[in-house]
Amino acid sequence: MAVNASPPPPPPLPSRSISVTLLLLFLSSSAILLFFFSTSSSSPFSSCTCPSSPISAAGVGIGGVIGGGGGDGGRGGEERVSTTKEDVEWVKDQIRVNGLRMRENVLRKGINPRTRAQQLDDLRNYKGISHYEGEEADNHTALPCPGGLLVEEHHSNYGEPWAGGRDVFEFLAESTHISPDAQVLEIGCGTLRVGAHFIRYVKPEHYHCLERDELSLMAAFRYELPAQGLLHKRPLIVKGEDMEFSRFRSRVLYDLIYASAVFLHMPDQLVWVGLERLVGRLKPYDGRIFVSHNIKFCSRLGGDECSRRLASLGLEYLGKHTHDSLLFNHYEIWFEFRRSKD
User: Fold this and answer.
1) Is residue 247 classed as helix, strand or coil in its secondary structure?
2) Given the DSSP bridges, would you call strands 288-292 and 331-339 parallel, antiparallel or unpaired?
3) Would you state the pLDDT for residue 17?
4) Taking Cα atoms as reference points, which of 258, 209, 215 lies closest to residue 237?
5) 254 has which bridge partners?
């Protein structure tokens, strides 16, 4: 008998068993890889086409978004300027949910309606519920404001509602895609119906204005700037006439120069003088001049002569635009120019 005989080798596994085992391993590996890619937030296979910014998506409608980052309410380095369709639907929904409707503004508990004239009369006669008397009356108000400004009589100085100033700001800001770094010059800013919005948006000292009317300037300095918390923005507002810009900083090149219903009231020749002085202060190619309502100072010359004279100044006419008001039935016409030479 052979003592050292080895045990017989095990029988070979069937080839079908090996194939099933390999198949199970492959399926398991595939499942693990699929789970990994489907849960990875940085997967390059992701097919999501959602907008990265909800503000940018909402801006396609009534209003939009312009580059920036220096204002309030911006997301992802962008500053929203205009009201969106979603904003409008939200406010309508709030009115509906609260069951609100317009009613006659009459005397009711806690509310005593007054016209501006009546409010001014009350202010002069009664000075408010609590006030200082005698010598103390002059020791507690840092910047005393005339009563006519306090009741906002200057808000009625225009041919349309005060709210139209916001419409102009939104149109111009979006048309020029300005950022808070932009330099802005307004010809005839009046009581800052438009200008206050630019002052709030751009960086300190970046808003400039030339205005001739003294009462309008008093309303701007003594009421609008302090009442709207804009004194720290230090706008450069200059009293002057005849399109004289010598008091403005010579090194500043403006991204936007605009005149809202101003050139209508000036002799054509003075408008041309002003444009000649302004063109060198406008950024070449990217800077814009916007003029509202009409450009009769140019069209009265005839088409060819108008174009020739603009070209001689280094200006190019880019087109006519309109924009609607958010709050009342109104649209405004604007004409756009750029500096076509360095």
Assistant:
1) coil
2) antiparallel
3) 47
4) 209
5) 282
* 315-324 and 288-292 strand pairing: unpaired
Q: What is the DSSP letter of 264?
A: G
Are 186 and 214 in contact, with CB atoms under 8 Å apart?
no
**The pair of three-digit structure tokens given for residue 54, joined into one six-digit string:** 């909800």
Rounded Cα distance, 150 and 224, in Å: 10
Residue 271's contacts (CB-CB under 8 Å, 6 or more residues apart) are 243, 263, 297
Length, in residues, of the chain: 342
pLDDT tens-digit map of 139-149: 788 998 999 99
Q: Give the residue from 214, 213, 216, 233 showing the smallest Cα distance to 225.
A: 233
Tokens of 98: 């609260």
Whole-number pLDDT of residue 215: 95
Q: What is the pTM of this model?
A: 0.76
Q: Which of 67, 62, 70 is nearest to 78 (CA)?
A: 67
- Beta-carbon count within 10 A of 134 CB: 7
The CA-atom distances, in angstroms, between 186 and each of 80, 140, 238, 297, 308 are 22, 35, 11, 19, 26
Q: Please identify every stretch of the chain with a pLDDT value under 70, giving residue numbers as ranges.
A: 1-79
Residue keyed to tokens 């390059």 = 44
Q: Distance between CA atoms of 240 and 246, rounded to whole angstroms?
A: 10
Both structure tokens of 229: 């918390």
Q: Token pair 């004239």 is at which residue?
A: 117
Phi/psi at 4 (5° precision): -90, 20
From CA 135, how far away is CA 114, in angstroms rounded?
30
Strand ranges inside the chain, DSSP E: 65-67, 78-80, 184-187, 207-211, 236-239, 256-259, 288-292, 315-324, 331-339
Phi-psi region of 37 (alpha: psi -120 to 50; beta: other; left: phi over 0): alpha
